[in-house]
Amino acid sequence: MSTETLYYIGVDVGTGSARACLVDASGRIAASDTQDTKTWRDENDHCIFEQSTTDIWSKICLTVKNVLSKSGVDKSAVKGLGFDATCSLAVTDFDGNPVLVTKGKDIGNTGGERNIILWADHRAEKEAELINSTGSIVLNYVGGTMSLEMEVPKILWLKKHMNPGHFSRCQFFDLPDYFTYKCTGDSTRSFCSTTCKCSFVPDKGWQEDFFTQIGLAELIDGGEWKQMGAAKGRVKAAGIPIGQGLTEEAARDLGLSKGTAVGSGLIDAYAGWMGTVGARHTENGTLSEVPVLDECCHRLAAVAGTSTCHLVQSKEGVFVNGVWGPYRDAAFPGWWMNEGGQSSTGQLIDFVITTHTAYPELKEKAKEEHKNIHQVLLELLEKLRQESGVESFTELTKDIHFYPDFHGNRSPIADPRMRGAIIGFELDASITDLSKKYYLVLESIALQTRHIIESMNSAGHNITSIYLSGGQARNIVLMQLFADTCGIPVVLPASHSEAVVLGAAMLGRIAAEQVTTAEQMWNIMVEMTLPGTLVAPAAPPKVKKLLDAKYKIFRETIEIQQRWRQEMEEAAK
């Protein structure tokens, strides 16, 4: 007698696309599909990034229908659905209609599209400064400094720019929670979104004195917190079922069955953690042992795309200056998470390449040689290395120092005013100069990763490996830089592009099986995560010495920039 294969769908809403993946209980991917989403910018304000729940939902529905069509799997075999999304602020009225967030006369109106303030939007700098001046207990759980990328500064900005009558009718969602609401009609929030991005304090809940102090007392609503949600126990750990599953309308939109289980969501980086850290790995053809639950405390997930998030779980809360958290119940019930991050990594690599004067020449060369631009740049570097008679790319670029915070520092100094720097410019605009700058960007991202890991370990963590996912995992030179610079192995997932959406699919299985304990959740992660590949530290002594020297200069660059800023501010008074 054959046993029916059960399937789960994960939906990953990234910065520029929506992806769905149909997965069985072993982690085997039956089908996947990706659709691009819209982002609106403001040509007069580089801080503005906006999106639309209407647009994203339409793309989600298309991807889900496509994976069913591609796989030939009947909707009746799909037992659970899970969502991850960026930590962006979605705004609707209490009927779920989009509320416009674009500054100007129409802000607060319903009926338009632009109702999401994207995570990368930096409009709320003054609001974040006000919040960080309060000394509230809330700040203890975000590394001492709240980022302007979090939701409360953005909500405060909206209050300042919106008609009070319009503001009072708004519901505010971190984006993963919006999609579970859209699917179920139930506004129960996730611990991941509320604690990590919305100032819901672990073990204590919403802090009325904090919201009153910053000018958002109306959100308290007599203790109901209807605009924010999560009051009176209406908040769940990852994957816990929401409501009664898919509503009839959502099921019709998605092409699934009414009542299909929907798990409480995760921020995209946390889904990347879920989809990677349970992996075994191969080294020299040998498969490692099945990891036990406690091993998750030593495995840092680095989810590396446009930006990079660094996540590690612990049994007890660990407070790290400049690193977000600790967040209780963000993934496993009763466990704690810390989250470091770099606001611009993949985006920075692209920026440095595409703004260089030699970029048109690079594109043409890549086209002629039928190679991608990264491969061309690395081959140019290798030619330079051989011609220079040096051992490594690090030695080739030893006299140039690159600092990567073009979009501010998220961790571990939590300073949005930090900016990028290059020391060692030459009168050179050639394609070989571009290849050097390309490598320096990779190196600086690895150096900053070391800074984040050292900060976490100094505070009480014991990170001994990096589990990497996202598009950057394809860049083996960068992966080796991580291992060599940080001095710990890097484990690459079986599929770098599917790790995050696989984590979302795990939420669907957790919901379908009504799993409730950390041990059960970990077992599902281990069962559904295919073995990865280990990249061990391999820097020769000279290269390691150079990387250590570069790291020392990297740290000094931070101190110098902050001192110079202070000196200029004093001079401008």
TrEMBL record:
<feature type="domain" description="Carbohydrate kinase FGGY C-terminal">
    <location>
        <begin position="300"/>
        <end position="512"/>
    </location>
</feature>
<protein>
    <recommendedName>
        <fullName>Pentulose kinase</fullName>
    </recommendedName>
</protein>
<feature type="domain" description="Carbohydrate kinase FGGY N-terminal">
    <location>
        <begin position="7"/>
        <end position="273"/>
    </location>
</feature>
<keyword id="KW-0418">Kinase</keyword>
<dbReference type="GO" id="GO:0005737">
    <property type="term" value="C:cytoplasm"/>
</dbReference>
<dbReference type="InterPro" id="IPR000577">
    <property type="entry name" value="Carb_kinase_FGGY"/>
</dbReference>
<keyword id="KW-0808">Transferase</keyword>
<dbReference type="InterPro" id="IPR043129">
    <property type="entry name" value="ATPase_NBD"/>
</dbReference>
<comment type="similarity">
    <text>Belongs to the FGGY kinase family.</text>
</comment>
<dbReference type="Pfam" id="PF00370">
    <property type="entry name" value="FGGY_N"/>
</dbReference>
<dbReference type="GO" id="GO:0019321">
    <property type="term" value="P:pentose metabolic process"/>
</dbReference>
<dbReference type="Pfam" id="PF02782">
    <property type="entry name" value="FGGY_C"/>
</dbReference>
<dbReference type="InterPro" id="IPR006003">
    <property type="entry name" value="FGGY_RbtK-like"/>
</dbReference>
<dbReference type="GO" id="GO:0019150">
    <property type="term" value="F:D-ribulokinase activity"/>
</dbReference>
<dbReference type="InterPro" id="IPR018484">
    <property type="entry name" value="FGGY_N"/>
</dbReference>
<dbReference type="InterPro" id="IPR018485">
    <property type="entry name" value="FGGY_C"/>
</dbReference>
